[in-house]
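P.,

For your records, the input lines for the assembly:
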Amino acid sequence: MKNEKLNLEELFATINNYFSPKVIAEVNDVYVKIVKVKGPDVPWHTHDGEDELFYVLEGRLTMQIKGEPDFDLNVGEMFVVPKGVEHRVFCVEECRLLLIENKTTAHTGSVKSSITKSVDEQKY
Amino acid sequence: MKNEKLNLEELFATINNYFSPKVIAEVNDVYVKIVKVKGPDVPWHTHDGEDELFYVLEGRLTMQIKGEPDFDLNVGEMFVVPKGVEHRVFCVEECRLLLIENKTTAHTGSVKSSITKSVDEQKY
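Structure tokens returned:
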């Protein structure tokens, strides 16, 4: 996976499903992933002990943090969901995201839903 | 630093110097940084035991890996310099980068040069 130039446009072109993150790079203990999302299919979940970064490359993502007002992330905006904070995301139109997570992070936390993918399923 | 929405355009607007990385977010053991670069001022250096990711947001960055042909990274392209690999970057026109590095990574490795900044100097 290492030692090659990564073109995100080309990599996104190979992704045909929503909510199916793909690992594109590893940097020490974190994975960098890309994902296309659309719709309300992410369940509320928490990553105990692990922060998760969302960076919007295309579209608009609505971030929901339990007990706080929803807010939107537009292109060029990022947000770190701190460890232990219950969250959910959704969007009406297709949105393309860059994610930074620990290698051990399960993308829907301990919650299993129809979108849940194992880490192996997230690899090219 | 956490729990706030980050707009990269606004953050870049606050940076007045080249080769002066700024920490904008932390995700577990890594820092996410932004930096404006222009010119040939980065010395050859190595990060022992630590990978470093470069993602080009604006401009064109030339990546030099010791013993290999130079190559360019354009907007939307990223490259991970693996741990222990001697490298250097330069660009003719201003280039804006997102970096992902361990919190412990010194941006010019063990090499001290005119551009070297401590981690504290990289914080807002």
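Two observations worth noting. The interface with chain A takes residues 2-9, 24-30, 32, 50-53, 71, 73, 76-80, 82-83, 100-102 of chain B (CB under 8 Å). The mean pLDDT of chain B is 90.

Regards
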